[in-house]
Structure formats: C-alpha cells, structure tokens
Request: fold
Amino acid sequence: MHEIFGPEGLISKAHPEYEHRPGQIEMAEAVLRAFEQKHHLIVEAGTGTGKTLAYLVPAIAAACGSGARVVISTGTKNLQEQLMDKDIPFLQDVLPAKFRAAVMKGRNNYACLHRIRRAESMPVLEGLDQIDQFDEVFRWVTKTETGDRAELSNLPENLPFWRHIDARSDICLGQQCPDFEPCFITRMRQRAIDADIVVVNHHLFFADLALRNGAYGAVLPDYAAVILDEAHQIEDVASEYFGTQVSTYQIDDLLRDVGILKIEEGGAERELARISARIQRFADIFWISFSEGRGLEGRFALAPNMRGSSPTPGSPAGESGWGGTVRESSEADQTSALPADALTDAYFALDNTLNRLETTLDVLKDTPTDAENIVRRTRQLRFDLNFIMKGEDKKFVYWLERRGRGVFLRASPIDVSGLLQDKLFQKVPTVILTSATLSSAGNFNFIRERLGLDDAEEMIAESIFDFENQAVLYLPPRMPDPRSLQWASAAAEEVIKILNATEGRAFVLSTSLSGMNELYERVSPQLDFPCLLQGSASKGALLRKFRNTPNAVLFATSSFWQGVDVRGEQLSCVIIDKLPFAVPSDPVVAARQRYIEDQGGSSFYEYSVPQAIISLKQGLGRLIRSTTDRGVLAVLDPRIRTKMYGQAFLQSLPPCRITSEIDELARVFENQVSGSKFQVSGSTIG
Ligand code: SF4
Reply:
C-alpha cells in the first residue's frame, strides 16, 4: 500500500496536490488484511481521511487477484457519483491492474420496455403537458443504452407517469417477459456480471439481499465481499427491506394493470371488470380508516385495539388484531378511524374480492404472462395485508406512514441484527463497514449491537485535519432547558449573536421542522444576511444558492445533516439547536427502545445517547471539509455540559477547542478573514 499511497507512491506521482495521509494507508492496509484473511472490519474514517481510495485500492487488488467480484454500497447519490465519476476513473488511469467497474441503481431508476410498450396503447397520462414529456421519454428509450432516467435531464425530477413505466421488481415478468433480452435491467446486470467492482446504493443492496434466492427481484450478481460506505444508515435501510408494506399505490397499480389485461374471453373480461370495481370500493372504505381525522403526514403507530384474536379472513367481524387502527404520536393527535367492526368488515371484504380476482385469473384459459404476474402480486398483497392486520409477530413493529397522496401500512423488524447475521455476515466472508461516524465515546459497541456484528476487526482512521487549529466549539453560557418555555427566545438570541460574529456563512440545523421554522421566524428579520429556509426550494437549488450567495444563512433540519458538502469560507459555522435524540414517539424508535428495556437494558444509554452522538457528529462534519477550512461549531443545548451523558458527546467530537465567550468568536473571524492563524483560548477536548 505504501507503493500506492506513500509520499513517492503512484497516487502522489499522478496527483500533484495529493497529500500523504498516514490514516489512509493504515485504513487501506486494514481493508487489505480483511480481504486476505476473510474477516469483517468496521472503520470509522472521518472527513479528511481519504477513505474512498483507502478501500477502493485494496478492493481492486482483491477482485483482480482472486477474480471474485466486490460490491461497494453507498448511502447517498453524491458518494455514488464521486466513486463512478472521479475515484474509479482516476484509479483506472493510475493503477497497473486493469479492472472493470459498473454502477447499478435501484430498479425504479430504469425504464421498463414492456410497460412502455403497453403504455403506448393505454392512458398513463394525467394532463396534456405530459403528452410531450411522454413522447420525449418514448424517443429516448429507443436510443438510450442504459435506460437510466438520470439521462432525462430536461424533464422534471418527479415525472408523474414514471411510476407506470419504471422497472420495479413486483411488476417484472422476469424471464417470461417478451422484452427480457433487450431489457435495461438485464443489460445492467450483464454489465455488473462482467465487472470486478460493482457500485450500488444501500436501497438496492438490501432489496436484493431480502430477495436473494427468490425467483423474482434479485438483481446483483454473486459477490465475494461487500464494502458498505455511509454504514451508519444501514440499520434503517435493512429494517425497511426486511419488513413488509402495503400501500394505496400498490392497490391502484394492481387495478390499473387488471384494466389493461388483454383477455380473449368476453365473459371473463366482464367478470374482471366487476371484481375490479368491488376491490376499488372496499379498498376505498378500508383506506378511509387510515386517512381520516387530521390526516397529518408522518409516521404513526398502529395500535392493537382488540388483540384477543387474529383477523383471519372468514372469522366473525370484530375479532381483529387492529381495531380503532391508528394511534398517533401523541394522545392529542388521535385520528378518527372507522369503528373496529367496520374496519374488520372492510378488510375481509377487500381480502375476499382480492381472492376472487386471484381465482378468476387462475382459471383463465391461455393465461397471458401479465395475468400470472397479477396473480402473484395479488397473492403477495393478501399475504402482506394479513400479516400486518394480524399484527401477531412480536418481532415486528406495525406502523402507518402518510406521505403525499399515499398511505403505507408497514411491518418492520424491531431488531435486524439476527437477520443481518444470517443473510449477510455469515454468508459473505468479508464485509467492510465504514463511515465518518460509526463510533460513540470512542467505541463501536452501539453499531456492533444494532447490526449483530460480533466478529469484526475495528479501527478509527486518523484524519488529516488539524481540528485544534481549524475549528472551535462554542457552547453558550446560561442556556435554559430545551424543553422550557424560555428556550425559543434564548436560542434565537444566541443564534443572532453567533451569526453576527461569523458574518452569516452558516447552517442553522434544527432537530425538528417546528424548531427550524420558529428559529427562522425569530432570527431572520433581525439579520442583515440573506436567509434561506429548507422547503422553500429543492435541496439542490438551496445548496447552489447557499454556495453562490455571500454570507448566506441556511435554516434546515436533518436532511442537511449528512451528504452535504460545502467547502471553503462560504460555510464557516454550523449551529445545532438541540442534541439530536431520535423522536421517541416515532413508532420504530419507540419499538426499538421498548425491546431494549424488555431485555433488561437501558434504552437511553444503549440506544438514544449513542444514536444522538452519531447524528451530532454527522451535523458537525459539514463544517471542516478540507485542510484550509476554518469554522465555528455551536451547540446550543446546555445538556451537553450539565448532564452526565454530555461527557460522552464531548468525548466523541473532533478534538477542537471549546469556548463560551462570544467575543472570542468575533476575534477568531477577524483573524480568519485577515488570513492569520485561527486561534482561540479555551480548553481542548478529545
Ligand atoms: S424483464 Fe421486467 S423490467 Fe425488463 S422489460 Fe420485462 S418486465 Fe420490464
């Protein structure tokens, strides 16, 4: 690895600005050992380590040496693009070994040829403006090599008809499809089979892992090793794909596809139309139960009202697992719902008509392939709906999400550690987990416990940044308790003082939307700097504006806490309002916490604190992105100093200086602007 990463190494020769980084070599050697000795490895590599090259080089060596493919999975699109557009082409030029790399995105990024052909003869468009857009997609699909919608840069990101023509797994006919050979998924898979390195995202990786060994849906070719970058996101993504869900969209899509089936038998066609109308009617009644009341967007617990017996279709009404159906995040948010009996009736009626659809299609003579696909989807839908409605498996949490026009009923495994052990860590000889934020209070106990990773080497790679001189942590004196009535005005006052000292150039990150809005409303009228607010434009547009607007201040929440990269003076300050504890009323968080308590543990110390530390580190990681960056981190929450657990937060942050003197911030920035060294008095942490 020294020959590649060392001061006189191949990378240094090819890249005049390359800085030799001991932490990078150390990480590369650890990754190489993990490949050679076939063990798992956890590496925390903060910004400035150069972690992507540190795992790519040994991954390429391992793949070329053994001929066994390595999969690299990322959490964000930015990182995937960095790997494919920058790091991998660079290494293809620099390294003597010749290797091939391919990218695979989630299936719904690709057009489905079969659905597009069908769409020509039936309406998928909801407005006149979509006619031109559809024509453009249709012309593009005859020319594109990849079928990746990212190529359609002229069209809006949210094309309303895209979901009717994308290549998602549940609608796929697999090898029975008449377009299987030219299919973009088949071609993507072939490119991946020919590659040594395959770059995917976590959603595709875990969707594939959940479906592996099944007949449909799995797309990744076999691999000998996997590198999971941005691995702090894995628990949530795995939980999504190892769980199950039923949505309003699923039933709408099913009915739509029944409507366009080409059935020769006239009697069967009429019968299907009757059944579809009944399914629609019962589905409408069923969904009313979950969308009435205040109909707020968000995630809510499904409450077992009458747990006495299971809602087995055919059993008397009222003996359901779920009645009253929805318990909102707080008692005050109670949703009105159908009475339990009515919901159970609606569910049984829906299930019966879905069953009728299944049997009617099953007995058709000369069943078209599309009909077989609908039978399979209907069977799965009934199974999933029954699983959720029963709500009997104690290893799952049952919940509801309202997003846009959709309602999603979900069952998620509360603890994914056993599933990950069975499906990943025991099956794949080398799994590398890396991220800038995986440890808390200097150890990996939390991530090991959450992911079931008992048997893995671990390391924290040293960053090249000189945090002691590049950053200062400002903890304001005398802040009230964040739950008190005085909090909002005191926080706003502090934010104004800090921003005046830093001349804006800041992200103000809140742990909740309401906190963000309140700070924005109180602070922005008092400032002479341009203020931007999350939600006022797309994330990309806001970031572009922030980068291009001198002294801008962006008020945002968790979506700006990770995967955002603003280098240089433009981002000189990150203010975090409260310690980012996960919302305890979130149904999945609450279930995980209950599970830990039931096992005799402390959910606060074993889950909430380490999880919040990792989130805080993510937020603060936005600030220092290069060796020349300078900046102020500010945490307004006084609990970081007044509570025992606050020490764990402080120990987990980069070793920067801390101060409570606002005047020192001003001096720091006067110094920075004039180009002198960034110095503040105060103690040092870490
Ligand atoms: S194989 Fe599946 S994804 Fe490909 S064209 Fe056919 S139905 Fe669409």
User: Anything to note?
Assistant: Residues 320 and 435 are 44 Å apart (CA to CA). The chain has four domains: 2-100+195-240+416-461, 107-184, 244-413, 467-684. The longest helix spans residues 266-291. The pocket of iron/sulfur cluster is lined by residues 112-114, 167, 172-173, 177, 179-180, 183, 185 (CB under 6 Å).
